[in-house]
Specification:
By secondary structure, the chain is mainly beta. It has one helix spanning 2-12; strands spanning 71-77, 83-92, 97-104, 109-117, 122-129, 134-142, 145-153, 159-168, 174-181, 189-198.
Length: 200
């Protein structure tokens, strides 16, 4: 959902945060604003159709570190509470990967493929959306959150660094925060914060 979320953020005027070094801990995010009584309908993302049997090679605990992201979600803007889209995260390839299927409230779509790299001992995420934007991130758990950092390539060839932090909350929601750096990682600014709430 990354590029589409970032576009939604720009429309909703997320605003930038003060720069921080790459070694800074995952950002602390304030709770989302109160949800409207009747949020606008959002078309659900398509369900997973992978029928591969469970793989014993992918049953280790290190491969379960991102399981808190699994499920069908309605995604709200972290500051305004506005519904910005829906996302379905499901296991694929016998549990060796996670597939993300994002659909924004405006109908734009994107997908990511996330898996544990046993050689590098890192999580790897590859994203592409219908505009042709590409994102490649790597990282792992940090203080209870999943933190992935890497390259963001826009359709026009412009590149920057992107850092995503997924933090599970006690109430069952997940906070997804993206930060961007255009100076090689010297400074970072908040680009999007989304609150994931499970769909019934």
């Amino acid at each position: 959902m990354i590029r589409s979320l970032l576009v939604a953020c720009a429309v909703a005027a997320c605003g930038g945060a003060a720069g921080r070094s790459p070694a800074a801990p995952p950002p602390t995010v304030a709770p989302a604003a109160a949800m409207p009584a009747s949020p606008p309908p959002v078309s659900p993302a398509p369900p997973d159709t992978d029928a591969a049997p469970p793989s014993a090679a992918c049953a280790g605990d290190e491969r379960r570190a991102f399981d808190f992201w699994l499920g069908r979600w309605r995604v709200h803007h972290g500051r305004t509470g506005e519904v910005v889209g829906s996302n379905t995260i499901s296991r694929a390839e016998g549990g060796c990967a996670l597939v993300e299927r994002w659909r924004s409230a405006r109908g734009t779509t994107g997908r990511s493929f996330t898996a544990w790299d046993p050689h590098a001992r890192q999580w790897v995420q590859h994203w592409v959306d219908a505009r042709g934007a590409l994102i490649d991130l790597r990282g792992g758990p940090v203080d209870g959150a999943m933190v992935l950092t890497g390259r963001y390539a826009e359709p026009d060839g412009t590149e920057s660094l992107l850092r995503g932090t997924w933090t599970p909350q006690e109430d069952g929601t997940v906070v997804q925060a993206f930060e961007r750096s255009t100076d090689g990682g010297a400074t970072w600014s908040t680009w999007f914060v989304g609150i994931y709430r499970r769909q019934p």
